[in-house]
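Researcher: Re-running this chain for the archive, since the previous output was lost when a drive failed. Same request as before.
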Amino acid sequence: MTPAEALRLAEERGLDLVEVSPNADPPVCRLMDYGKFAYERAKREREARKAQKTIEVKEVRLRPKIGEHDLAFKLRDMRRFLASGNKVKVRVLFRGREAAHPEVGKELLDRLTAEMADVASVEQEPQVEGRTLVMLFAPLSK
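Model: Regenerated structure tokens:
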């Protein structure tokens, strides 16, 4: 069918002539209501975005000399964050002379790893960033 015939046919039916595959030989066209098509495509994309789960990274800040009770609260918060599907970044802050003993912070993070083994996996091993020690936990896949 010639392009002129296709345009005339589309006009008679009140539709649009849309080129589907321009690289084909001959090019492939289709009769459709383009406004309706664009609306439905946008609607499908909105639904797909709505269905996506965005993963947040929650942060828990600790000090090397944290008390047992305070640590228990931080662990409870971490479990809650991981249960809701978020990742947890644990940051151990060193101030003053504490920075001379990073092994204390490393031991704290090792203890956290052992405590969280049932609900989380280590996504990023402890790394030193300036005066802090950072580690990332991810929830275990179900």
